[in-house]
Amino acid sequence: MKSKILNTSPERTIALVFDKGDDVVSLLEKFAEDNALSASRFSAIGALRGAVLGYFDWERKEYERIPVQEQVEVLSFNGDIALDGDRPKVHAHAVLGRRDGSTIGGHVLQATVQPTLEVLLIESPGYLRKTCNPETGLALIDIDA
């Protein structure tokens, strides 16, 4: 993955270009940690050779895993990076396009790039803190933190 700062004011904007074989979620979290990003939002386009999406099962309070084991176009990929405790955590959703024009979407648990993924990441001026929500069991943005 390569990165370049595009501007620093009013909000820092960074372009990230992922390479074939890169694991999106882990590299985004590492980039956020290495660059002390505590609150950011991002969007992306590109393609993946596979992914694992999730659908949150309200009754079980866990994600049902949806494996995507084919080449797909990234039609929409949006999310945020916020602190979960003292570590940055990625929360992203995607809609992926299949060869036949059908789509599949959900919470991004894992995604492997092929051939590229282009991400525009915008650092927010304030802090976004995630805290564990007792009703859902999820780490959710706590605007009062």
From TrEMBL:
<dbReference type="InterPro" id="IPR005175">
    <property type="entry name" value="PPC_dom"/>
</dbReference>
<protein>
    <submittedName>
        <fullName>DNA-binding protein with PD1-like motif</fullName>
    </submittedName>
</protein>
<dbReference type="InterPro" id="IPR025707">
    <property type="entry name" value="DNA_bp_PD1"/>
</dbReference>
<feature type="domain" description="PPC">
    <location>
        <begin position="8"/>
        <end position="144"/>
    </location>
</feature>
<dbReference type="GO" id="GO:0003677">
    <property type="term" value="F:DNA binding"/>
</dbReference>
<keyword id="KW-0238">DNA-binding</keyword>
<dbReference type="Pfam" id="PF03479">
    <property type="entry name" value="PCC"/>
</dbReference>
